[in-house]
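Contributing new records

If you add data, match the layout below exactly. Sequence lines come first and carry their own label; structure lines follow with theirs. Keep one chain per record. Anything else will be rejected by the validation script.
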Amino acid sequence: MNARGYQHDGPIVVGIDGSPEALEAVRWAAREAAIRDRPVNLVYAKEWPVAGLPMWPVWNAEFGKSLDEAAVSLLSAAKATISELAPEVTVISESVEGTASSVLLTAAEKANLVVLGRRGTGGFGNILIGSTAVHVTRHAACPTAVVPLPHDQSKRDWIVTGIDGSAHSQDTLELAFQESSLRRAPLRVVRAWSHPVLDAPALDLPFPPLPEDLVAEQERVVGETVAGWSEKYPDVHVERVVVKRHVVRALLENSHDAQLLIVGARGEGGFAGLLLGSVSEALVRHAECPVIVGRIQ
């Protein structure tokens, strides 16, 4: 497929920085590794501060030693967490010099999946803010999962994804069917579209009901789009949702009972620029469940 999908023989890579969010990513990755029968590769990025800053004299060999000690401690704690949650999972760890984005992208080249906490400190600080996040989600050679802090999973069954009618959404849809089949979970496919001005985030204007013929046409398109994948994955129960709604609102509202939200790196129509700017930031920051980003070529 055109999507950079799962390399089934690769490990699950987890970025470690000592934050609670990163620890939650470790816990989630442990469960994923057990489901996928994959090893986990814990990665700590040793990023030296930029030379020339007022504090530059302190960045010496002693500081480097402290970075090494912190890496050993954090990686050991993360490994112990995985061993407790999923003792059958093989765990390897590494401490690598470099920026967060460069270390993650290198590891992603041979990974099944890259897993990150929603926020972090240290080597993976601000991983979902600015150029680092854009760089990782655009260029990772495998899907990337963004995991929020703990939340109630007891009533979360669904896998949720969105389609926009573009060829790219087919790749994201395939990823969603793979995840649903893997987890034996139902799949909710959302088709949303909106007016670029009237549906601006600052506005929440009421709209008249959609004409029945328009709704029927959109439902037909969704049905045809899903049909081929349903034949390939007959074990996956599919619910189709057609809504006149801003794309972010539509996906967030339909993922309240989801265990996973699947999005693609780009799209057309209502999902244009899904991982560019405010749309992507809203999804990964505010979704109540983990978000898997499938990189589309």
